[in-house]
Amino acid sequence: MLAQDCPGKRDLQNSIQQAHKLLSSQESSYLQSLRALRKKLHLLQDSVARRPAKPKNYTCPDLEPPVNGRKLGKTLFAGHEVHFICDAGFELLGSETRQCKDSLSWSGHPAVCKDIDECLSSPCANGGSCTDEVKGFSCVCAQGWAGPSCDSPTPTFFVNVMNTSPAGEASSLPQSHSSAFLRQPRCRQTQGTTHCTCEPGFSISGRDHSVCTDIDECELFHTGQAGRLCLHTCVNTAGGYRCSCPAGYDLTRDGRNCKDIDECGSGQNNCTREQLCINTYGGFQCVKVECPQMRNASYAKTSPTRCERNPCPGSSRTCSQAPGSVSHHHLSVVSGLSAPRVVFRVSAVRMIGDSLRFALLGGRAHRFFTVRRSDRQTGELLLTRPVPGPATLDLQVEMSELERGELLGRYITKITIFVSPYEF
After folding, report:
1. Contact 215/227 with Cβ under 8 angstroms?
2. Given pLDDT bands bounded at 50, 70 and 90, which one contains residue 171?
3. By its UniProt entry, which InterPro entries does this protein fall under (predicted)?
4. pLDDT for 259-300, tens place per residue?
5. Rounded to the nearest 5 degrees, what angle is found at the Cα of 120, between the Cα atoms of 118 and 126?
6. Is the pTM above the cut of 0.90?
7. CA-to-CA distance for 58 and 41, rounded, in angstroms?
8. DSSP states of 99-157 as a string?
């Protein structure tokens, strides 16, 4: 080996110093992990020491699912929950969620699935009578109306009687009307009297009652007990009408209502691979989730919608007080959604501390939302008043974990709500 290939004394000293620094950094990180683990073990030990001894049979009694409903959850140990849902056409009375308490009794009240009386909302319009049925209702419509909800007018023939022609003589009708919204009536002679009728969708008119004029159903049935003929836009046609929907919606089979198009599920979007496609009512949004940039803490993306904080240096208190995780969620709602109602839940999967605290952070969303606790481990985002669309609201729900009042960790859930311009 040549002499010039051997490292000098100064180079060796620099290399050794770099190795010392790397070792010190690894040792600091290792010690921080050990301290965090030791703290959790102490908290767990205290929790076990405070917990009363369990009896031999340390499970809550089994709960049967309600008739016409289902039970979700099979674990019966203290701290676990079961949930109840009802079949279509039934509403839940009692507690939707029940938790097995330390006393080995269930929280809340027994769940019962009661048949929904659809007739309470008066679904039969225009004087129709309603009969409640299991998972539905039926209407007996008054004369002149038809359809499942008695909101479609039946074809009407308008008759005019003119005693102007001798018996057996055919009436003479003008031939000058060429507009698509005008028709000639059909007339016949009976014992010297002329009877004229119009086809459905037209009414007889004119100075001499010799022309049938189109009925504008869109104008005639725009308001009233029956409501509008179309959910969105009604277009009058010769002898009838047709409905249309805004961009982002398809017309349903009944020809009157509008159904949202799922651009994300059908591939009708231009979102890139780095973006999430969020379907909204009447459209879609391309969203790119990025981890927060903080001076004393760094984050790594662990899923398309979640960022976890990297380990903190042992001496950095500001880093340890930064959120341990930041999750992103996106919701789509219609304009004017009725309130109050729960729109989102935040829950701790595992608890180390003795309590959780939930808070709604900043933003103009305070006018429409609040946060409340539903049980020991769950907070609910509650819509308190309808939100007119179109609008995009950004909210942050903070969940803080405490042990005897001391902060153990903070977790942020960012929720973006896309409000449609329409009420459907």
Report:
1. no
2. very low
3. cEGF, EGF, EGF-like_Ca-bd_dom, EGF-type_Asp/Asn_hydroxyl_site, EGF_Ca-bd_CS, Fibulin_C, Sushi/SCR/CCP_sf, Sushi_SCR_CCP_dom
4. 999 999 999 999 999 999 999 999 999 999 999 988 889 999
5. 90
6. no
7. 24
8. EB-TTS-B-S---EEEE--GGGG----TT-EEEEETTEEEEEPPTTEESTTS-EEPP--
